[in-house]
């Protein structure tokens, strides 16, 4: 029988007597679960970092859209007011001046109200017809409370002294202030 045992041992798998299995209390015991925990925490940290980055980029994108909307509103009001200042008709001067007053505030509003009556008389006595347009307008500075815009304007002015009309070109610096969810003009300067 000893022969059979030797044959079974000889044909079976070889076993290294020095090898230490996971069931023994050796050095490598428990490293597989530790690696799993580290991997999970690394994935969680990466996910948090990606979500934070997306949040920051989303906020930046939202702010950029808000700035774009604000700038568009600022330019629209500037074009309206500046075109209104150079597009006047003595036959409807009160309506023209009231339209400008409706988007005025601060010192511009005060000056305009003080001069409106005499300005209306000048338009009427000179039979002034002026048609103008904004050729270009660009924002110098803008935030959520105030803006400053430079506008290039041209107009054709007809009156009793120039019945065929004269072309005039202006550059205006316009200050705007946010008030009651709308932009109002607080100052207008003619610049050279």
Provide the CATH top-level class. Alpha Beta
As residue ranges, the low-confidence spans are none
Report the biggest beta sheet as strand number plus sense, adding barrel if it closes. Answer: 5 strands, antiparallel
Widest sheet, order of strands: 1-2-3-4-5
How many domains in all? Answer: 1
Tell me the series of helices and strands, N- to C-terminal. Answer: HHEHHEEEE
> What is the level-2 CATH architecture name?
Roll
Which fold does the CATH topology refer to? Answer: Nuclear Transport Factor 2, Chain: A
Mean pLDDT: 86
Distance between the terminal alpha carbons, to the nearest Å? 120 Å
> Using only CA atoms, what is the Rg?
40 Å
**DSSP, total strands:** 5
Helix content: 40-55%
- Structural class based on helices, strands and sheet pairing: alpha+beta
Subcellular location: Membrane
Keywords: Membrane, Transmembrane, Transmembrane helix
Transmembrane segments: 38-56
Main location: membrane
Keyphrases for this structure?
192 residues; alpha+beta; Nuclear Transport Factor 2, Chain: A; five-stranded antiparallel β-sheet; rod-shaped
Written overview of the protein:
- Residues 1-30 are annotated as: Disordered.
- Keywords: Membrane, Transmembrane, Transmembrane helix.
- The protein has 192 residues and is α+β, with helices and mostly antiparallel strands.
- It has a single domain (46-191), classed as Nuclear Transport Factor 2, Chain: A (Roll).
- Helix content is 49%, strand content 28%.
- The chain has four helices and five strands; from the N terminus they run ααβααββββ.
- Strands 1-2-3-4-5 form a five-stranded antiparallel β-sheet, sandwiched between helices.
- A hairpin with a 2-residue loop joins strand 4 and strand 5.
- Helix 3 packs antiparallel against helix 4.
- The longest helix is centred in the first third of the chain and has 56 residues, at 31-86.
- The protein starts with a helix and ends with a strand.
- The mean pLDDT is 86.
């Amino acid at each position: 029988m000893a022969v059979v045992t030797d044959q079974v041992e000889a044909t079976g798998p070889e076993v290294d007597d020095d090898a230490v299995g996971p069931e023994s209390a050796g050095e490598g015991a428990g490293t597989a679960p530790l690696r799993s925990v580290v991997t999970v925490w690394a994935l969680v940290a990466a996910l948090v970092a990606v979500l934070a980055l997306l949040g920051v980029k989303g906020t930046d994108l939202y702010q950029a859209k808000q700035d774009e909307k604000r700038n568009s509103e600022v330019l629209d009001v500037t074009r309206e007011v500046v075109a209104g200042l150079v597009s006047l008709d003595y036959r409807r001067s009160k309506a023209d001046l009231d339209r400008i007053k409706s988007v005025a505030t601060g010192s511009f509003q005060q000056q305009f109200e003080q001069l409106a009556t005499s300005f209306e008389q000048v338009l009427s006595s000179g039979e002034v017809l002026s048609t103008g347009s904004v050729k270009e307008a660009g924002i110098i500075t803008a935030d959520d409370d105030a803006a400053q815009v430079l506008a290039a304007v041209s107009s054709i002015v007809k009156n009793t002294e120039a019945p065929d009309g004269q072309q005039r070109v202006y550059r205006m610096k316009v200050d705007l202030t946010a008030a009651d969810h709308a932009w109002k003009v607080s100052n207008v300067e003619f610049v050279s």
